[in-house]
Fold this protein.
Amino acid sequence: MHERRLRVKNMRAYERRVVVICGKIYSQGALMSEIFKNIPVIKYEGAESKNAFAFKFYDADKVVMGKKMSEHLPFAMAWWHNLCADGTDTFGRGTTDKSFGAVPATMEHAKAKVDAGFEFMKKLGIRYYCFHDVDLVPEADDIKETNRRLDEISDYILKKSKGTGIKCLWGTANMFSNPRYKNGAGSTNSADVYAFAAAQIKKALDLTVKLGGRGYVFWGGREGYDTLLNTDVAFEQENIARLMKMAVEYGRSIGFKGDFYIEPKPKEPMKHQYDFDAATAIGFLRAHGLDKDFKMNIEANHATLAGHTFEHELRISAMNGMLGSIDANQGDYLLGWDTDEFPFDVYSATHCMYEVLKAGGLTGGFNFDAKTRRASNTVEDMFLAYILGMDTFALGLLKAAAIIEDGRVDAFIKERYSTFTDTEMGKKILAGKTSLKELAEYADKLGACKVPSSGRQEMLESVMNEVMFGK
Ligand code: XUL
Ligand code: CO
């Protein structure tokens, strides 16, 4: 019914070339050559610049620790926030016009979003984008029609990307918005819903491969539960693992060589999410033999919701060889939900980049899974937000490199564990060549144990301030 109304509206719009909705005029059919007419190409002007439409710290070609900034920081645009989200919240409708001159929820609009997205990325020098299937086209009532639309739009994206070097960073399937996923997707109680989830993953993998994606993400939106009174946790987790195994099997069969990612999140929308944090997700992957094909996509705001720091989640992933990609955003410590703000916290970005540099970089990239505030409702704000995010991570990179080059933090950590590397008994412990019995005899011989050396946290925090603000 809804679709028929939409078709009729579209036909009328097509005939008239323009259509008026809620007092606004939308052009139909004709695609504008430049959408963000008042926004220039964003260039690096340095820290002294007062030009809001310039980078102060992100200097793409600047070499830091042997690599260009643009290589350290493969930034990506999140299709959903940047091209779809209009500021709607639980208390009010949208504040931002994301129609880009087309009638919303039509294929013309889907194409206008592609035009807007590519102009946006080109003006900012961003080389990647991330998408959910339903960010790209309006979902139809019948999955066959949705898939046809996805074929049409991905052809259009491919055409549009020719000669730009812009590619997909990762793709994913939205398995949380449609009411059929109210009880989960891989964790649903309905075999039919499970089949639809599988069908969406199959198509999203096809699209990811077609668009040159480096990765494929599983964010377990509704994979969790609210009460054990209606839930078989073991059953649901086994089923999620089965779905992931089928995804790996299918992905590899169509030539997908990239990584699959789990994007951990502790809560929201579900009370207990199965992929609570990196440690939980890594344990799950290992238990189901999925750890060779999967890595983590760590989102800053998800880490803080889990009661962790961003850098903790990155460290846990990296030390398990599973740091794949990053959703670069930030939360608000005064609010307990996923605010998806553009990152401006340079301390956090510095800790993040320290982890990334130490891990030897990412196989994925930095996806701005972030939205402008509801009150920041103009197209200018879209650009200003990305300038903020890109500059924050550029600063993070510069400061993290400075901390590593300064060497005091690394030297302190090495020294802190030196009783294991510089004493006979410490070496024996590390080599696995001792036993409880021998260690107990050793303790007996000592009689009393010295309190270990100071952690010097305050001194090290001063070192960080010094490196951040000293020059
Ligand atoms: C939700 C979230 C998602 C994933 C992709 O909190 O972060 O947008 O990044 O599904
Ligand atoms: Co995310």
